[in-house]
Design goal:
It is a single chain. The chain starts with a strand and ends with a helix. The strands form 7 sheets. A 5-stranded antiparallel β-sheet has the order 20-24-21-28-27, with helices on one face. A 4-stranded antiparallel β-sheet has the order 7-4-11-10, with no helix packed on it. By secondary structure, it is an alpha+beta fold. Helix 7 (about 575-590) packs antiparallel against helix 11. Helix content is about 30%, strand content about 30%.
Length: about 750
């Protein structure tokens, strides 16, 4: 029989006690009905002071996590390049048990890498006074190194009870029931809030680069001309300077100019201008030091809001915290935007819009905006049979679509291995030789997004309007992973503009993985270079055998050919021979006698490299040997990259004549025909004279022009053998089809 109830408070938590009376009139032991209290904790994250530096530049990109009971309840925005960040962010939290402290963790954001830990602290909620604003200063510590000073975080907190203590049984029971209903509502609200917040942020680790508001409205073109009187950082009184640029998450790095205090770079970088982002470009100058950290030379900034558009500005910026000046040209230009829409809103299906797009890229508009080469529309329809990334056997997949430095993403489809997105992405094409990359991730709120699969599709290989199933590949694009993705892609471009853009430098990607040392990669590049060199060696042996008369018939034919060519040789015959080689390979291909062979050796080595990388990762975790010999690692990486460049150069020449990319081969035929005609009708002395006059007067006519080699720029568009393997489409596995799986299950 329920006789009476009374309230007690332990740590400000109301607790209801039952007291039962037996027939003898004595009371039994109190039985608690634990009714948790509900509190509202209002937090204002003010700022941080003297935080730990985690980046090589001596700064960090800090953000803060709040956790209660092991669950993340709030995450702040990222403040870039600051050890004294100012957030001024507010969070309203519901707290059920004050005995659970507020756990504060600070991290340094690193895109594509594991975020660096910057310190943590606890806030004891039982020590807070109710209904009273309190300024709190927490000291950050690392549990592994308790003596290290990692800075402080300043907060303002207010703790407010959502329920008061009740004096009678009826009100206590009503309060208990009311609280239970409120708790259920709160749980539902939290779940819905989590879903909505996930839908809006699309994985906080990737949102800062991939989120939808990042639709660019213009381009900031920066030409780094030179440096003047920079600070000497080396013992020889000189430096090896290079410059880093940063606008939001967009980063560029210039080439290194060895042993100079007055470097001449002549490099151009294009940033995307976002309306919602601040228009400040951070510029830092560094001295390259092999084997240790690079030395800081100085920094400066460009406030884009102070510059007028559609005009080139010459800026001479003094380096702060250092010595010297940087000379730059900055141009702000408007541009058509990239966009996302639902499948029902399709630009190319609207006859008027399609006609407008076709007119924009018609042959008659060759010289109108040479940078606007074409239009790309990508329909991301669905995926099937994805890999399960969660412990529940499901995934929360979303899709990132990238074209050079343009990145857009779909929404997340939760708890699904066969998601349907039905999104349409549109891009402006600046280089028809670009590669469209579509990557599928699994969203994870507490960690970086998990990789599920990727495809890379060269724009020139796309068949318009065809819905295709692309087999997802691994990160290295060397082998299949689980799942397929269905895409429908349309490309409209101006061929003349595309050809002209082929002869200028490629756009540099501002987010690229840094090269790392790999034994297998080093071996692969060495073998690739060896194969290219052996072609020349074998040719030399063949010619020498003609001189030695190893085969009399062959030597006699070579001797007659030598006499005929030398007697009738003209300079125009050089491009004509290359033209004949291209024509010969073309007729072999169309006649079915294709002499191009799939490079299984390179493909096998790529697969071996992936396995070796996994082993190296595990070994490096155990031994960390490479990190201990940093200088040797730098030298090996340089050798590895040089081997790759030399091998790629030879493979690109081969693939040009093998018609690997027909567009480029046809372009080479046009150029060789033009050179043949010019050399035939115009005397060589006139050609050399025009070339020399152009070279000598180029600096006078355009003092800040960027030097480039048209032939090298052309070859940079031709894929190497490694890229050919990476861009190959894999055949879908019939077992991936849902219908097939259903039949198998029924069977």
């Amino acid at each position: 029989m329920l006789y009476s109830c009374k309230l007690k408070s332990v740590c400000n938590l109301p607790v209801i006690y039952n007291k039962k009376i037996n027939t003898a009139g004595t009371s039994n032991t109190d039985v608690p009905l634990a009714v948790p209290g509900m509190y509202q904790l209002d937090i204002t994250l003010r700022r941080g002071q003297s935080l730990a530096a985690r980046d090589r530049g001596g700064t960090s990109d800090p953000y803060v996590k709040f956790k209660i009971g092991g669950k993340e309840v709030f995450r702040s925005k990222i403040i870039h390049k600051s050890l004294n960040p100012v957030w001024e962010e507010k969070a309203c939290l519901l707290v059920e048990h004050l005995k659970e402290p507020l756990y504060i963790k600070v991290f340094d954001y690193d895109f594509g890498l594991q975020d660096d830990f910057m310190g943590s602290a606890f806030l004891d909620l039982t020590q807070l006074e109710l209904n009273r604003p309190t300024d709190v200063t927490v000291t950050l510590k690392d549990p592994r190194y308790p003596d290290h000073d990692l800075g402080i975080i300043l907060l303002s907190v207010v703790l407010t009870p959502k329920e008061g203590e009740h004096r009678d049984v009826q009100s206590s029971i009503h309060s208990f029931l009311h609280w239970r209903i409120y708790e259920i509502k709160t749980m539902l609200m939290r779940k819905s809030w989590k879903r909505s917040s996930k839908f809006q942020t699309q994985s906080l680790r990737l949102s800062d680069v991939h989120r939808k508001p990042h639709l660019w409205r213009g381009i900031v073109s920066i030409t780094l001309i030179e440096g003047r009187d920079l600070k000497a950082m080396d013992s020889n009184g000189l430096s090896d300077p290079y410059v880093k640029f940063r606008l939001g998450h967009q980063k560029y790095k210039s080439k290194i100019m060895p042993k100079t205090l007055n470097p001449q770079w002549r490099e151009q970088f294009d940033f995307h201008l976002y309306e919602e982002r601040g228009g400040i470009i951070d510029i830092t100058a560094w001295d390259r030091d092999a084997g240790k950290r690079d030395d800081f030379i100085g920094r400066c900034q460009i406030d884009l809001s102070a510059l007028s558009r559609e005009q080139t500005h010459k800026l001479v910026l003094q380096l702060e915290e250092g010595e010297g000046h940087l000379v730059l040209l900055v141009t702000l230009t408007a541009s058509a935007t990239v966009s996302i829409s639902d499948l029902s809103i399709n630009s190319l299906e609207d006859p008027k819009e399609r006609e407008e797009i076709l007119k924009r890229y018609s042959p008659l508009r060759i010289f109108h905006n040479l940078k606007d080469v074409g239009f790309l529309q990508v329909k991301v329809i669905r995926a099937e049979g994805l890999m399960a990334a969660d412990v529940t056997g499901k995934s929360d997949p979303f899709c990132v679509v990238e074209l050079n430095n343009d990145r857009l993403l779909t929404h997340t489809v939760y708890k699904n291995l066969n998601p349907e997105w039905n999104k349409v992405f549109t891009f402006n094409i600046k280089d028809i030789h670009s590669v469209l990359e579509v990557t599928v991730y699994d969203e994870d709120r507490d960690r970086s997004a998990d990789f599920l699969g990727k495809v890379a599709i060269p724009l020139l290989s796309i068949q318009n309007g065809e819905q295709k199933a692309y087999v997802l590949k691994n990160k290295q694009l060397t082998g299949p992973t689980k799942g397929v993705i269905y895409l429908e892609i349309d490309v409209i471009f101006n061929a003349v503009k595309a050809s002209l853009r082929t002869l200028i430098p490629k756009e540099q990607k501002y987010i690229e993985e840094e090269n790392r040392l790999s034994k297998q990669l080093l071996l692969r590049n060495f073998i690739r270079m060896k194969r290219c060199v052996m072609v020349l060696v074998n040719a030399a042996y063949y010619i020498n055998s003609c001189f030695d008369w190893d085969s009399p018939a062959r030597s006699l034919a070579a001797f007659v050919l030598f006499l005929f060519v030398v007697w009738n040789f003209e300079l125009y015959m050089i491009p004509m021979v290359l033209l004949l080689l291209l024509t010969w390979n073309y007729f072999l291909i169309i006649s079915g006698k294709d002499n191009r062979q799939r490079d299984t050796v390179v493909e096998d080595m790529l697969e071996d490299e992936e396995e070796e990388d996994d082993k190296d990762d595990k070994d490096s975790e155990k031994k960390g040997f490479i990190n201990k010999i940093y200088a040797i690692q730098e030298v090996c990486i340089s050798v590895q990259n040089i081997l790759d460049e030399v091998a790629s150069f030879g493979e690109r020449i081969k693939n040009t004549f093998n018609w690997t990319i027909p567009f480029l081969s046809w372009l080479a035929i046009v150029a060789l025909c033009a050179f043949t005609v010019i050399l035939y009708f115009i005397p060589l002395r006139y050609i050399v004279l025009v070339w020399g006059i152009n070279k000598f007067t180029k600096k006078l006519r355009s003092p800040y022009a960027i030097d480039n080699n048209e032939l090298l720029d052309f070859l940079s568009r031709v894929p190497s053998d490694v890229q050919v393997v990476q861009y190959q489409e894999l055949k879908p596995d019939p077992s991936h089809s849902p219908c097939k799986r259903k039949k198998n299950n029924l069977g």
